[in-house]
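Notebook entry, structure prediction.
Reason for the run: the old model in the group folder had no record of what sequence produced it. Starting over properly, with the input documented here first.
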Amino acid sequence: MIFLTAGIIVLSMSVFGQSTQLPVASNLDSHGVTKDQLESLSNLMSEALDREQIAGCSLLVARRGEVVFRKAMGYADIESKRPFTTNALLPI
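New structure, fully documented this time:
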């Protein structure tokens, strides 16, 4: 089976050489997002890992300029067993 490492990384935006972190949402309701929806995303990530469809992944969802979901799981590098983190950078 082929292992893929999937990553969607939107940690910061670079503007004229400066890095700006997105603020974390304090109230999901004001962003039109529910905990159930975010749990579904987490479950999809876990299922793909369990089925060995991917080795690891990182997902960030931002809405209205704030982070509403950020999670990483699995491996960024299978051979070295380096875990995937929310700040991992990978070549695309």
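Summary: The two ends are 21 Å apart (CA to CA).
The old model has been moved to the deprecated folder.
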